[in-house]
Amino acid sequence: MPKRKPYIYFARDLQVSVFPQYLIIDLWNVGYTEYRGMLAGIGMANREKVLEYFIKPAEWKRFQQFHQKCVEQDRSYMIKKASRAFQAVRRLNEFSERQIWKKDLSRLSNAKLTEIYKRFVELDTPCYAYGNVIFALEFGEGAYFSPRVRKILEKRAPARFKEYYGVLAGMPKKTVFYQQSLDLLEISYRVCKHKTLLRLFTRASPQEIVAELRKHHPRILREFQRQQRAYHWLFHSWEGPVMTVEDFILSAKDILKKGNVVAKLREKRHELEKLQKAQERIMRELHFVPYERWLLKMAQFAMWFQPYRKARQFKSCWHLGKYFTEVGKRLHISADQVRYLAHDEVVKALRSGKADADEINRRRKLFIYYYRGRKRTILSGSDAQHFIDDSIDVPKVKKLSTMHGMPAWHGVARGKVRIVNSLQQATHFAKGEILVSYATNPLLVPAMRQAGAILTEEGGMTCHAAIMARELNVPCVVGIHGIVEMFKDGDRVAVDAAKGIVKRIT
Question: Per-residue pLDDT tens for 196-243?
Fold first, then answer.
């Protein structure tokens, strides 16, 4: 009888910087006791920046149940954790801007750089410590709030369940992504009112548009420059790159190409107000009692909180890129290589003036980071592969003609599949294709804007794909187990996102 493997993969991400993942694994294994939380033996496997978290199944279930019990004992539990996360992120942003972004790091000693790094890690840790509580409460099959809302709708309005759930799943509160989208629509509206500008944006490249705006329309150029200053870090993720003025102009070109800018702007301005009224109408119609309204409010808050917290942390990650570049110069390695060093290894390298480039390069291909009890273990190369083969249970995916997942945003679509699990794969994405991924992140937003539908293997109502699909009005189904293995580029599928169904078209 084959030996039972103790671990399973429970979450994936792509194009991930390793730096914060070390912090997360340390936190879940040994650090959570400082935050009156529960430890969980989570590890990570990173293969060329596709990251997979693994854990013993019973531990993940126990971790989620611990926080669910806290919610049941204190209904303000999640809000309290989120409040602490807000404070932590604010302190992190202030520190990274003041001590990294505005400093000439080349003039600082290695000892001072070490001090800055330790302080950054110290400030970043509570952002994840409190933020991950909200993640645990609304992730996957063990989510707490949104499944309870679904059950209420299934029981009281079975015939209109999908429709009502799609409305109630919308966020009635402004997000930074909503504001950026609205601001860009406002600029696009000003462009479309001017025939010469509209012709320019229709025919010219972003670089040509910048040159022309600088000569003849400096006011419009300043609008795009303001957009870039305000939101360049928003799609940075952990490593970037940041958005340029040309990138925002390219987004505006896409808006103008689709047309109906005036109608879209009017709709966007009143979108949240209309959504709030529609949600209130449904709750009154279905006689939501205070407890049920609270469940919905918490589910919506989690959807709003996750992108807010991550986007603010990404801003500090953008600042930290400057730090890694300086450290890389001193250690004679790249900034990307520095990110593969664990926190204590960065400190040791700055002390000695050197880093093990060979080990770093092995980690860039494949490595494992986990704890045996309270002892940290790092495996790379063949040792990492042996660990995966011997210890992580990867269930085989059955070939199916129809797959089911969780509806994240309604709509139907037909088209060719494009697997996108890296930035390189995203560069080949064509308008109208069906984007299939383990999980999305801000770096994939340009491709997501072009997608006919978005399908992900991971996630729930608070995942990046679900949130951005609602912002972009793109049909989306999440939590489709095995979909990345099920399809290949070019396969044709039909998506009914309201029902959470994906069918292969032969």
Answer: 999 999 999 999 999 999 999 999 999 999 999 998 888 777 777 788
C-alpha–C-alpha distance, residues 458 and 453, integer Å: 15
CATH class label, 402-504:
alpha beta
pLDDT at 1 over 60: no
This prediction's pTM: 0.86
Q: Is 118 in contact with 347 (CB distance < 8 Å)?
A: yes
pLDDT digit string, tens, across residues 104-160: 999 999 999 999 999 999 999 999 999 988 988 988 778 899 889 989 999 999 988
CB 402 within 8 A of CB 503: yes
**Kind of pairing between the strands at 434-437 and 412-419:** parallel
- Determine the distance from the C-alpha atom of residue 388 to the mean position of all C-alpha atoms in its chain, rounded to a whole number: 25
Task: Number of helices (H) and strands (E) in the chain: give both, helices first.
Answer: 22, 14
C-beta separation of 288 from 153 below 8 A = no
DSSP strand pairing (412-419 vs 492-496): antiparallel
Q: How far apart are CA 235 and CA 126, in angstroms?
A: 22
Run of H or E including 493? strand 492-496
The alpha carbon dihedral of 160, 165, 171, 177 has a sign of negative
Domain ranges (residues) in the chain: 7-141+320-393, 176-272, 402-504
The answer to whether the Cα torsion of 485, 490, 494, 496 is positive or negative is positive
What span, in angstroms and rounded, lies between the C-alpha atoms of 384 and 178? 41
By the 8 A CB rule, do 494 and 417 touch?
Answer: no
Which tokens is 326 given? 């300086």
Rounded CA gap, 7 and 368, in Å? Answer: 13
Q: Which of 448, 456, 410, 415 is nearest to 434 (CA)?
A: 415
Distances (CA, A) of 340 to 52, 142, 349, 363: 16, 31, 12, 7
The number of beta carbons lying within 10 Å of the beta carbon of residue 198 is: 15
Reading the block at residue 256, the tokens are 């103008």
Are 5 and 392 in contact, with CB atoms under 8 Å apart?
yes
> How would you class 387 by CB atoms within 10 Å of its CB: exposed for 0-12, middle for 13-18, buried for 19 or more?
buried
